[in-house]
Amino acid sequence: MNRSPIAIAAVALALAAGSAAAEPLKIRAGWVNTPATMSPLLFQKRDILKHYGKAYVVEPVKFAGSTAVLAALRAGEIEIGAVSYSNVGDGIVRQGIQDLRIVADGNQGGVDGYASVDFYVRNDSDIRAIADLKGRVLATNGFGGAADFGLRVMLHRNGLQDKRDVTIIASPFPTLGKLLLDGKVALVSLPAPFSYDPAVKAGARKLFSVQDGLGPTQQLVTTAMRGFLETNRPALHDFFEDYVTAMRWFTAPANRDAAIGILAKVSNLPEARFASWAFTRDDFYRDPSARPNVVALRANLATLQETGFLPVALDPAPYLDLSFIEEAARRLK
Asked: What is the DSSP secondary structure assignment for residue 35, as one 8-state letter?
C-alpha cells in the first residue's frame, strides 16, 4: 500500500516525538566541593537507584563558590544547585529572584556536635583574637557564600568592617591553605577536606568557626527555579526518590567505608585523606531524608538583616518547596 508523503511525514514526526519523550531528563547539578555538597557522590551508587538513566540523568557542574552557582541557576545554565543561605537572602531580596525555590537540605554546620566552617591563622601568627585581624588581609572562597558571610558576621560583632578595618579577598578553596601558609593572607576559611590537608594541620591553627557567630547553620540548601520544578514534576519525583535513597545510604554508618571509597574516587584523593572525619561528627551534618533545618535557616536569614547585610529579614516559607522530598519519604516508607 502506497502512503502519501504527508502520511509518511506524520509517522516520522510521531516517532520522533515518542523518542524525545522517552529521553531521560538531564539535570545539571551545581556544586563547589565535596563532601560538603553531595550531588557528585549521590548518583555514583547506581545499583541502589531505581530511576537513574530512565527518568533522569545527572551532570555535576563544578563552581568556585555558591554565588556562582546561584548565578548559573538564574541564567538557566544548571537545573539544580547547592547555594548558601546568604545567597538565598541576597538572591531573593536584592536580586529579585522570586522564582528561586529551596527543595532540600544541602548541609548543616554546628548542629548536634557536627562540624562547622572553621577559620585558620598560621601557627607563628601573633593573631590571638578577632580584634587582632585589624589591618590584615583575609580570604574566603567566594563573596556572598556561607563562609564569607560567617566571617563578615564575626567581624561585624567585633567592630571590624571590610575595606575599612580589614581587606577580604576571594580565592577557590583548594588555594586558600597555601595562601595562608605562604604568608599572603592572615586568615582563611577552611572547611573539610581542606582543613585536613597535612600541611595545614602542621602549620595552622583554628581561630574561630561560623558556629561561634551564628550557632546552628543551614549552610547550604539545594535549590532550583520554580519553572523547572513545575515543568518536570514527574521526573523530579523519581529523581528525589533516588536522591533520598542515596543520601540515606551515604549517611548510614554501616556504609561508611564504601562511601569513603566513592568520595576518594570522585575527589581523586587517597582514602586516607577522609578516613578520620568524613561522614562522622567531624564532618557537616546531612539530614538522611534531605530535609532542611528550617528553624536554623530562618534564624540565619534574620542575621543577615540584624547585621545590616539585608534591609529585611527574609521569611523562607514562601520559597520552600519540600513536596519532592516529602513524596520521596512517602515512597520509601
From this structure: T
Q: What's the DSSP call for residue 95?
A: S
The count of C-alpha atoms lying within 13 angstroms of the C-alpha of 217, restricted to the half-sphere facing its C-beta, is: 28
Cβ of 182: how many Cβ atoms within 10 Å? 9
Q: What is the DSSP letter of 289?
A: T
Write the DSSP symbol of residue 215. S
Set of cell numbers at residue 63: 563552581
Q: How far apart are CA 206 and CA 194, in angstroms?
A: 13
Q: Residue 61: which H helix or E strand, with range?
A: strand 56-62
Closest by alpha carbon to 293, among 131, 85, 33, 96?
85
CB atoms within 10 A of CB 108: 24
Q: Are 5-110+217-331 and 118-214 the same fold in CATH?
A: yes
Q: Which residues are registered as beta bridge partners of 206?
A: 120
Domain definitions of the chain by residue range = 5-110+217-331, 118-214
Q: What are phi and psi of 194, to 5 degrees?
A: -70, -30
Mean pLDDT computed over every residue of the chain: 92
CATH architecture of 118-214: 3-Layer(aba) Sandwich (3.40)
pLDDT one-digit tens code per residue, 149-202: 899 999 999 999 999 999 999 999 999 999 999 999 999 999 888 898 999 999
Query: CA–CA separation, 246 vs 304, rounded Å?
Result: 33
| Conformation bin of residue 76: beta by default, left when phi > 0, alpha when psi is -120 to 50 | left
Strand 118-122 relative to strand 204-209, pairing: antiparallel
Architecture of domain 5-110+217-331: 3-Layer(aba) Sandwich (3.40)
Amino acid residing at 53 = G
Q: How many CB atoms lie within 10 A of CB 3?
A: 10
Distance CA 238, CA 51 (A): 6
Using CB atoms within 10 A of its CB, is residue 306 exposed (0-12), middle (13-18) or buried (19+)?
middle
Residue labelled with grid coordinates 582563611: 188
**Residue 18: per-residue pLDDT:** 47
3-class SS of residue 328 = helix
